[in-house]
Amino acid sequence: MQQLCLHVITDEILQSRFTHQDLTRLCSEGGADFIQFREKRAMSLQQRFAVAGAMHALCESTQTCKLIINDDVNLARTIDAFGVHLGSQDMDIESARKILGKQMVIGRTINTLEELDSQTDVPANYFGVGPVFGTKSKTNAASTLGLATLRRIVQNSPIPIIAIGGIQLDNLEKVLDTGVAGVAVLSNIVLAKDPAEKTAQFKQILSSRGP
């Protein structure tokens, strides 16, 4: 059994106290395994490259976390990020794999058990599945899955599942009981008074369930 992992998704829309770079530093200090750069606002290519490049440099300097880019395959390739995460409206996995090669990690969003059935042969490294308990970070979010459906997806998936959506310290154990390989958290960490401390609390629970 591999160590359960923690993905932290950065955000400057739900909060304005911390920049993407600030959150990268703080969550790295807290022990996050992966930092995912997600920016839905209009931003020039130059700005996106600058922010993502700074985040990547922070991850490289700490050697404790790795950077994943949300949505943008070309950005991930240009800054040589660790990976990219693609939603259902983004580039298809096969095309992304041709661009990024065999080594870069590719994640894919799955919102339903039926969607999993259509994605079992794609060359992805993990599926991000949710929202498990709903989400505050999306206005057009998919329907809430619940733990029972999450467990069925885990049981039927050929690759690791990372759960996302409304995951907090008080429901984390129940999510882990479904057999997921890890969790992705946005609101509960980036909106915390101390994101580094909250990250460490998540990581402590995940580590206690590891090998």
- The helix-and-strand class reads alpha/beta
Number of helices: 9
- Summarize model confidence as the mean pLDDT: 93
In oligomeric terms, what are we looking at?
single chain
The proportion of residues forming helix, as a percent range, comes to 25-40%
Stretches where pLDDT is under 50 for at least 5 consecutive residues are none
The Cα radius of gyration reads 16 Å
Order of helices and strands: EHEHEHEHEHEHEHEHH
Strand element count: 8
Molecular shape: globular
Determine the N-to-C terminus distance.
6 Å
Main sheet specs: 8 strands, parallel, barrel
**Spatial arrangement of strands, main beta sheet:** 1-2-3-4-5-6-7-8
How large a portion of the residues is in β-strands, by DSSP E? 15-25%
What are the SSEs and their pairings?
Elements lengths: L4 E5 L10 H11 L3 E4 L7 H18 L3 E5 L2 H7 L3 E4 L6 H8 L4 E6 L2 H5 L8 E4 L17 H10 L4 E4 L7 H5 L5 E4 L1 H4 L4 H14 L3
Parallel strand pairs: 1-2, 1-8, 2-3, 3-4, 4-5, 5-6, 6-7, 7-8
Structure write-up:
This protein is of the alpha/beta class and 211 residues long. The chain contains 9 helices and 8 strands. The chain has helices at 20-30, 45-62, 73-79, 93-100, 113-117, 147-156, 172-176, 187-190, 195-208; strands at residues 5-9, 34-37, 66-70, 83-86, 105-110, 126-129, 161-164, 182-185. It has an 8-stranded parallel β-barrel, surrounded by 6 helices. Helix 5 links the parallel strand 5 (105-110) and strand 6 (126-129). Helix 1 packs parallel to helix 2 and helix 1 (20-30) packs parallel to helix 9 (195-208). The longest helix has 18 residues, at 45-62.
